[in-house]
Write a structure and sequence with these properties.
This protein is mostly beta strands and 415 residues long. It has 1 helix and 26 strands.
């Protein structure tokens, strides 16, 4: 789409000394409005992880109770006024509980309800922990966390006192020992612990070695295997909410990525200050510029005319550029011309300083219309200067044939 704009700029004012000075420039760009309509969609995401971030020995639900004890007073906290979902931090299983395609946009054709099996995973029924946990029987107890294996050996139940018993977990000695027990607490990768995957679970295995002095018969040695098992698939939860889907209409203005400016410059194309000016009959230098153009586009000046006031429809008028880029002032035998440059977002041209119909006025205003078009010049997007030596119109960047209509009428090509 071609971006178009109109620039209205005051050029200069005249004084009795026949010098002209610049006044401030202002730029007006056309805008379009676009209505965008969209619907909000809520997505629930489930995460499958293969990591030992679960408790050992199967899933352990972590429901949030309705009432919790206040840490200061010990009393019960007040019930929440609004209902909320009681979700666990995570739940873990040996394999996925449903097909993930249920959450694919290609699978959903309308607002049909989710299968009941999926709903049970999204909002699991709350389950409470027992208030007390039974002590594990036997002389060896193992507790597993995401990173560590903790083992307690009740040496007294093995029939030997602690002074005559030596217990080790793989290559590690006990961290702590009492008269009746030995304690181990080590990372899962320490003490020669082996990791392997069995039946869709991650298993960390080691051996507990027991050595005791037996009177009259030397030493007695045996070993006991210990393991930590973790499920490989996890469902992770966050606090849920019930979204309200509502179609919205948003009106957004469409505008270019940068404003268009028309600036009066000196012979080195530096911006003139308001106190500087031009001498009547000498060239004035102008630069039209926009901040951005795409790689295959270029800025073009289509029309420019001068008036005695800031209104672009006021009379009298003197045309400088007409017919979609024909610098007609160059045909009058002046020094007016388009000036070559390497920047596609800049158009430079010169115009001889003049008076408007011989009237001496303080200010004169130039009004220009420009657009961003194809980098290849056309009959309606060009920069043409008249060559008096060759008696022909010449295009600055492309084929001169696009300037053939400068002496007639350049008509846009209808799609």
């Amino acid at each position: 789409m071609t971006a178009e704009g109109v620039v209205h700029c005051g050029i200069y004012h005249q004084s009795e000394g026949k010098r002209v000075s610049l006044s401030a420039c202002s730029c007006c760009m056309m805008m379009m409005m676009m209505m965008v309509e969209f619907a909000l969609i809520s997505v629930c995401a489930l995460v499958g992880l293969f990591s030992p971030a679960a408790r050992a020995a199967g899933p352990l639900p972590l429901p949030l109770p309705l009432h919790t004890a206040d840490p200061v007073t010990g009393g019960e906290r007040a019930r929440l006024e609004a209902p909320y979902l009681h979700l666990p931090v995570f739940r873990h299983f040996r394999k996925p509980r449903f097909n993930k395609q249920h959450f694919s946009p290609a699978h959903v054709k309308g607002r049909e309800p989710l299968p009941e099996r999926v709903r049970q995973i999204l909002v699991p029924a709350p389950r409470r922990h027992p208030k007390t946990r039974m002590n594990a029987s036997g002389p060896v107890r193992v507790a597993c966390s995401a990173r560590r294996m903790r083992v307690r050996v009740h040496t007294a139940s093995l029939g030997s006192s602690a002074e005559r018993v030596r217990v080790s977990l793989g290559t590690c000695e006990a961290r702590k020992a009492t008269e009746s027990s030995a304690f181990f607490s080590n990372d899962l990768h320490e003490c020669g612990t082996q990791r392997r995957v069995m039946n869709k679970t991650v298993v960390y295995s080691n051996m507990l070695y027991y050595t005791s002095d037996v009177s009259g018969s030397g030493k007695e040695t045996f070993s006991v295997p210990v393991q930590c098992r973790f499920n490989t698939f996890h469902y992770s939860y966050k606090i849920g909410f019930m979204p309200s889907v509502k179609a919205l209409k948003i009106y957004k203005p469409m505008k270019t990525r940068g404003s268009v400016t028309l600036t009066a410059c000196d012979a080195q194309w530096n911006r003139l200050s308001p106190g500087e000016g031009f001498v009547i009959g000498q060239p004035m230098y102008f630069k039209a510029e926009t901040l951005y153009v795409p790689d295959d586009k270029r800025l073009f000046v289509h029309f420019c005319h001068v008036t005695a006031n800031s209104s672009h429809v006021s009379t009298p008028q003197v045309k400088i550029i007409d017919n979609y880029g024909c610098l007609i002032d160059s045909e009058r035998g002046s020094q007016s011309r388009f000036v070559n440059g390497t920047q596609r977002n800049v158009v430079r041209f010169t115009v001889d300083a003049f008076t408007l119909h011989g009237k001496v006025q303080k200010y004169l205003f130039m009004h220009c219309e420009m657009s961003i078009g194809s980098v290849v010049p056309t009959a309606t997007s060009k920069s043409c200067t008249y060559n008096h030596l060759e008696h022909r119109w010449e295009e600055l960047y492309g084929a001169d044939s696009v300037c053939s209509c400068c002496n007639s009428s350049c008509v846009p090509v209808m799609p």
